Each structure stands twice: as structure tokens, then as C-alpha cells.
Amino acid sequence: MSETGVAAFSALGDQVRTALSERGFSTPTEPQREAIPPLSDGRDALVVAPTGTGKTETAMLPVLDSLVESDDRFGIGALYITPLRALNRDMRERLEWWGETLGLDVDVRHGDTTDYQRQKQANDPPDVLVTTPETLQAMLTGSKLRTALEDVDHVVVDEVHELAAAKRGAQLTVGLERLRELSGSFQRIGLSATVGDPQEVGRFLTAGRGCRVVEVDIGSRLSIDVVHPEVTDRDERLSSELVTDAETASHVRFIDDLIADHESVLVFVNTRQTAEALGSRFKELGTNLGVHHGSLSKEARIDVEDGFKRGELDALLCTSSMELGIDVGHVDHVVQYGSPRQVSRLVQRVGRAGHRRDQVSSGTVVTTHADDTLEALAIARQARNGDVEPAEIHDGSLDTVANQIAGLVMDTGEIRAMEAYRVLTRAYPFRDLPEQQFKAVVQELAENNVVWLDEERDTLEKRRGTWQYFYQNLSMIPDEATYDVEDVASGDQVGTLDERFVVNFATPGEVFVQRGEMWRITNIDEEEEVVTVSPIEDPAGEVPSWTGSEIPVPKAVAQEVGELRRVAGQQLQDGAPIDAVASHVANRYDAGRATVETGLEQLDGHEAPLPDDGTVLVEFQGREVVVNACYGHKVNETLGRVLSALLGQRAGSSVAMEVDPYRIELEVPRQITAGDVIEVVEETDPDHLTALVELSLKNADALKFKLAQVATKFGSLKRWRGRGSTEFGRDRLLAALEDTPMYEEALREVRHEDLALAETADLLAALQSGEVALETVGERTPIGLGGRSAGRELLSPENADASVIQTVRERIQEDRVILACLHCKEWDRRQQVKRVRDQPECPQCGSTRIAALNPWADEVLTAVRASERDEEQEKMTERAYRSASLVQSHGKRAVLALAARGVGPHNAARIINRLREDEDEFYRDILRQEREYARTQSFWD
User: Fold this and answer.
1) CB-based burial of residue 315 (10 Å sphere; 0-12 exposed, 13-18 middle, 19+ buried)?
2) Longest CA pairwise span in the chain (Å)
3) Is 612 left (phi over 0), alpha (psi -120 to 50) or beta?
4) N or C: which end of the chain has fewer CB within 10 A?
């Protein structure tokens, strides 16, 4: 043991050392050896180590020791701030033991704390208070609690890496500066998972002063296997039992075998949708595991956590809900299903395994397709090498500024504006906030009646709306509704859905997965915030419509995939057999040859120039353009927006876009050529990129949704609900707020979360200078086509789209219509659509002026034949004549469009007049219109 190790516990006082012996702490862990001495000296520190390495005791032992030694304190001596209330449950048992043993009072305060307990804490403050960032905001405004907070000497911030990358963290940094106004300077201790820029996270914690960073090297303690399971005969047999294809069956079987080979396993997936889909397969297989994700009720999550901890469950299938150190006992292996997408996620997840002293953390990444395999190989290598992504701090978020201006006013009743500016800009994320921007936010708050601005005295004062605004906005987490999901038959609650999901996806008839089962939406009650569903007994052939949101893959990972392609691809093009190339790659990446081979299959036989870390390949066929670029999600999203906007401008119509870390897929109008795409890339000035992107965002739903959330945080919208606000309403909101700090913040946040402007400008410049090669090919390549299966959910078969379109086609052909002659008005007939002639005509008068009407539209026939009509009958007659005009011009094609649900003559004309390459597109347009009708039906009924 190093001298530091020997000195670690000896730096603590007698009482704490005695308690250590009682607790069984004989030898300090690595973070304890390195951090306890400087912490005992009162220094600020950031402790970076995986979950389970004794980080809590590392921080709290010196704090508790200091509190034991202190005898002149009457208020709260230490705050332990944690981002999740669930963590309080885990910490409480340990911290209360230390408190009882050392004669210190430890208590917890969060949103669910009873009024009685809150009053007790205010009257008789505990020595140590465990709380959340949001509850600290409320505490700073209470008169008794402000007195109690004057004695704070230590603040411990847990999971600080998570807060550093969120607005909650930006809010907390100002909250700590408000606390500093009360208590003076205090010791700051941060506990963090592995991050790429610990010094920056340290500055985030300490208001830019920096601190001692104690970092445990986790890379050397990781044992990570990347495996693409081979399909066996057993998997072929399992596929029908599990209602899936043999390849997915092989994934489930392989993971089931891993669970059987270990004592306690965490199986991580990237989305709730995958958790539900995979969970349903394990349920069929009889695997003893529980499912854990954020959409499940708190009781359901606690139930599976405790069951796993007691050994009643062999495994937990979970999302990022299990990343933040929730105590579930010993974990001896971690499985990651699909690429983890980011190095930090893999390190945090696999780091949960094997925390017995000096034990290696072992994990297996189970990959599903070629991109997935190469990506997982790159991420696993970077994880072992310690190349973790930096935390992306929310610098200068203006809705946080608005929130904290109100907080500062609440603290004291009134404050000079420039004094508020001084406190705000002490916090690290706001160190560069321009005074002019601060004043614009203040002006907005004053106009929204959140604070009173006395311009003569330059003071901000409380007004009637300040209290209500502040307590409605304690949290910087967007105020989205949560819809209950209820089984229509039993009335039981199945789970919950986020508002964003309901706004952007949910319509009656759509299918999704929850609780491991498939459900069809039957109704959405926006007033009660309830989605009613019915179970699907036989899921075969059903396709969930929602695939969830993807975790963005960083540029560094995508570039390594590009490098891997370049090295292996060159060897393959030089004639080396794929198994020999795979063996060469496997040696470097410490992976199995067969697995590597599955990742290289799309390179084998690729004759076009290879898209890699130094080459962008544009492939063009028909209306499909694919820009193959290994630059990650954010760069590709940014470049894709620019390309779709500028190409759409050239064509005078919209360009559809889909993006993954290695491709930008565009569906362009017929007149757009490969030359147009190359011209846009070569002629777009990188210096104009920001303006072009901002222009492209103006019609994006993401910006409108974000703007509504930001406006709420400014007090501009008292209450906003996405579904209640029509598309017209959101467009009007965008126009109204365009020149305000709210628009500026919404734009900043979309850029921060989804885009990479500087890196994309660099890529454009490199393409124009030739530093990055730009190649074209007039056909689809295996690599370009590889993106179509990437990111598909487990329940989506390859022919999902084709089968849905075929179902629509068959349903419409089987439907019945009324054909009625509007020339003689004497003839009508009810007929199946499939039996209608290509050009219908009246058998009595020979006219082709035939209306195609819904089979229940007898009242329309009555209106057409009436000699005198009321206003409603006039409207019916007008629609009938428009229908007849379409049928006269377009024959049976018009009948097909008019037979669809909710498609009137106006929309039928739009569908018919679109130019298409195949009939599937015609039915796809009909389906889109039917879904839109289902979404808006309540407005017409």
C-alpha cells in the first residue's frame, strides 16, 4: 500500500476510525486512499470512479469527521445533493448508520417529504441533509431554512457528470452560488462516473476555481467481449416459439445462456421499446428476469430492484434507468444488447459489475448487424483505453437564467439587477453571459409579470406572480404531461407514456409495446391524459410503429469505424480472404474472428470507392441519394439539414431525410441529380452554415416543441400541452417569439442536443479542399443499404413496410362504395372497389360524370337529387360534384383514393396528382392521409 493509502484513514478522527472498525472497513479502496487526505484538509475535490467503489464513504467520512469535531454549529452542516430521489433510498441506510454511530442527525428531504417532516427540519435542522437539486431551490427561499443553511460547511454533489450535461446542473450551479451568499465559502465535493474531461467537470462544480481530481483508472479493469451470436438449429426452432426470426432468437438464446452462466446479471438496452420487446421474448423463454425502465411505476421498479437484490431474480433487463448507481446488490456480469452508442455508457454500465476488491468488471456486447458490430468493437477499444466523451455542459441556457433571476428575487424579496448578474455569472455555465443578454431576459420576465423591474433604482422585486412562477418551475426538466395507459377491457393501468410520444406518434390504431406485450391504441383522452389500449393476442405480422429515439453516436466512434473500414476494406480489395482479414482485425480488437467477419460482410465485394474516415461517398439511384459519411449522428444531422434545405430550394419541393452515424439518406424530387448534390457540397460556404441551419430549423417540429417548453420556463405560457396546441398554433407561437430570448434559447438547445455546427463546417471545408475525398457512384452499395436495418426494433420484420402497404391495398379493394351518376341522377350502385371498372360510366345515359361516395352516404344522394337544398345539403352536393370530376379525370384511381377513410375530394386530388415511381407510394400516401384523419378526427366530429 502506498504512503497515501496508509495515511487515508489515519487522517480521520478517533470516533470515525472506531466506527470504521465496527463497519468492517479495514483497508481503504483506491478512491478512499487518494481522496480522504485532501478532503480531510478541507480541499475541494472531484472523485471519478465507477459505482460500487465506495465513493459515498470517500466523500462523507471526512465530512462526518469534520461535523463530529465541530461544536459551534446550530444549522445544517452538510448537504448531500443527488439527482434522483431513488438514490436517497439507497444512501439513507448507510448514512443513517454513520449518523447514529457518530451521534449526528441525518435526514432526507425531497418532493415527497411530508409537511410535518419539513416543519420539523426547519425547526430542528439535521446535521446532514440528503436532498435533490430542485428541493435545494425551494429551501433557499424559506426564512427558517435560510437560517439553517447559514451553517453549511460542506456540499457533496453525487452523479455530478450527469448534472454537468443537463440544465438541472446549470440551475444547481447558480443555486450553490445563492447558498454561498448565505453561508460564505464551503467545501465542494463531486462524485462522478468516468468522464473524458474531469478538470472541466471540476470547474463546473467549483465555479471555475478547479479542484483536486481523484480518478480511478477503470479501463484496465474492464473485460469486454463483443459477440455477434451465430444462428444454430435450436434458434431456428425457437424462432416460431418466440414469434421472431432465427437471428433475433439467437440473440435471446445467447443472452439466456449468459444469465445461466452467472449469478446476477444486468442486461442493458438502449430504449424502453427494446426493453419491452426483448422482455416479451424472455418471458416466452421462461428466463427468470425483471424489466426496469422509466415508464414503469415507482412501485414496479422498486419491486424488481428488491427482488434482484434478494437473489429472487437472476437478471434485470434495464435501460439507462439503472446507470445512476441504484443499489441492487452484487452484479457479476453486464450484458449490453446492441452497440452502447457511446463509450461513457459502456464504461458506466459494465463498470457496475464485479466490485469485490480488485475484481475485473466483465461485460458482453451482443451485436445485431454489421454497423452495430464495428461500432461496438471501436467503443470497447476506446473504453479499455480510457477515451471517454467529455460532458457537454449547457453553457448560457437562458431559461435557466430566467428561472434563477426569479430565485434570487425570492431569496430576499428584492435585489439590485447587477447584483443578480454578479451572482449568476459566478456560476461556471454562465461565466460568459453577456450583460445585454441578461438584461433582455430580465425585460422578458418583467413583461410576463414574473418579477417587477424598477428601472430607476435598477432593482428586481417580488410581485404577485413571482411565487407561483417559481414554485411551478422548481425543476428545469421540461414540464411534459404523462399519459396513463389503460387496458380497455379491464380498466387496469398498463403503464405510462410521455407527452412527446403521444404528440408525435399516438393515434387510434397504432401499435406499440409496453410491459413486454403489444397493444393497439383505441382512444386518446387529452383532458384526462389517458390512452386506452387493447391487447393484441397474436403479435405475428403486427408491426409497432414507434422505434424510440436513438442515442447519438459521437464523431470519434464513427471515425474509428471509418478507419476500420479503410484498413479492412483495402485488404479485401487487394484480394485477401474475409476470414484472414477478420483474424487480423480480431487481434487488434480482442474479439472473435466470426464476430468480426459479420461486421466486415458489407465491405466484402464492395467495388465502389469505400466510405471511410477520409472519404465521403455519394450514391444515387432514382430518387434515393445516400451520403455515406463516418462522422457520427450530430455532424450527419447538421450536414443532412443543409443538404435537404438547399436541394429542396432548388427543386421547389421538400426533401425527406433520415440520418444515422454513417449515412445521410435523402429522398429527392426527380429533377435533382447527383451533380446537384455535389454542387451543394462544393459550393456551400462553411461560414454560412449556421445561418443555413437556423433557416432549416424554422419548420422543424423539434424547434417548435422546444420553444413551447422554453416559453413556459420564461412564464410566457402559463401552461402548455403539446396535443392541445395545433400545428397552426405552434407555427403562430414561433412567429410571435422569433425575436425574443426564448427563441434564442430554443435554438441554442436544439443546436446543443442535436447538431455540431463547428465540426460540420470543418467537414465542408475539408471536402472542398480535397483533404477529405468526395466520390460518387450511380448505384446503391451494400454499405449504403446497410443503414436500412440499423436501429430497427426487435418486432419489426424486414418487410414491415411492404406488408403494411399490402394490408392497406387489400382493405381498400375489399371496401364498398356508392357509384352515382350526376348527369342523369337516375342511377346509383353499391359495389366493391375491386369490381369497379377502370373508367366507370352510367349504364342508363352513358355519362362518365360518376361520383364515388362512402357506402353510408345516402343523405348525399338525397341532397344531389333534391330540387331545393339547405346549406348543409349544398355542401354535400358540392363534394359529390368534386368527387365526380376526379373520377371523370382519373377513373378507378380516384375511386381508390376516395374509398380511403377520411379522404375527401380535396385530399384525394392531392394524392392522385403526386408523381410516383411505383404503386406502393400511392397507397403509402393514402395511409399517411388516413392516419392524419385519425389524429384530427375529434376536431371534425
Assistant:
1) buried
2) 109
3) beta
4) C
CATH topology of domain 398-472: Arc Repressor Mutant, subunit A (1.10.10)
Which residues, other chains included, contact 867 with Cβ-Cβ below 8 Å and sequence gap of 6+?
none
Q: At 482, list the grid cell.
A: 404523462
For residue 627, list its beta bridge partners.
618, 664
Percentage of the chain beyond pLDDT 90 is 53
For the chain, which residues make up each domain, given as ranges?
3-216, 220-385, 398-472, 482-535, 606-788, 800-940
Q: Which of 548, 771, 762, 769 is nearest to 638 (CA)?
A: 762
Residues 6+ apart with CB under 8 A from 201: 46, 160, 161, 164, 190, 192, 195, 391
CA triple 822-828-830, angle to 5 deg = 135
Say how far apart CA 113 and CA 334 lie, in whole Å.
34
DSSP letter at 321 equals G
Q: Is the pLDDT of residue 804 over 70?
A: no
- HSE-CB of 10 using CA atoms within 13 angstroms: 5
* Contact yes or no for 82/137 (Cβ under 8 A): no
Exposed/middle/buried for residue 770 (C-beta within 10 Å: 0-12, 13-18, 19+): exposed
- DSSP string of 603-619? TTT--SPPPBTTEEEEE
8 A C-beta contact, residue 596 and residue 582: yes
The pTM of the whole model exceeds 0.85: no
Query: Residue 498, exposed/middle/buried by CB under 10 A (0-12, 13-18, 19+)?
Result: middle
At 790 the pLDDT is: 37
Average pLDDT of the residues in 918-934: 76
Tell me which residue of 551, 162, 211 sits closest to 392, measured CA to CA: 162
pLDDT of residue 791: 34
Domain 3-216 and domain 220-385, same fold? Reply is: yes
538 pLDDT more than 80: no
Residue type (1 letter), 679: E
Confidence (pLDDT) at 930: 72
What is residue 667's predicted lDDT score, i.e. its pLDDT?
87
CATH topology of domain 220-385: Rossmann fold (3.40.50)
* 3 state SS of 220: helix
* Tally of CB atoms within 10 A around 443: 14
Query: Which residue's entry shows cell 425570492?
Result: 410
Sheet holding 459-461, edge to edge: 414-416, 459-461, 452-454
Q: In 3-state terms, what secondary structure has residue 538?
A: coil
Q: Which helix (H) or strand (E) holds 147?
A: helix 143-149
Phi-psi region of 902 (alpha: psi -120 to 50; beta: other; left: phi over 0): left
How far apart CA 71 and CA 103 sit, in angstroms, is 12
pLDDT tens digits for range 825-880: 999 998 889 889 999 999 999 999 999 998 777 888 888 998 888 888 888 899 89
Q: What angle do CA 769, 775, 780 make, to 5 degrees?
A: 155
- So what's the pLDDT on residue 514? 66
Return the closest-CA partner of residue 690 out of 772, 751, 767, 749: 751
pLDDT of residue 617: 97
Q: Give the integer Cα–Cα distance in Å for 303 and 429.
A: 38
Residue 226 CA to its chain's centroid (Å):
24
Local structure of residue 794 (DSSP, 8 states): T
Phi, psi of 682 (to 5 degrees): -80, -25
Angle, nearest 10°, between helix axes 578-589 and 370-385? Answer: 30
In this predicted structure, what is the pLDDT of residue 402? Answer: 97
Average pLDDT over residues 572-583: 93
Separation CA 378–CA 365 (nearest Å)? 12
Mean pLDDT of 214-229: 89
pLDDT at 277: 79
pLDDT the model gives residue 319? 86
pLDDT tens across 68-78, in order? 988 776 899 99
Q: What residues contact residue 456 under an 8 Å CB cut-off, 6+ apart?
A: none
409497432: which residue's cell? 544
Q: Are 375 and 339 in contact (CB under 8 A)?
A: yes
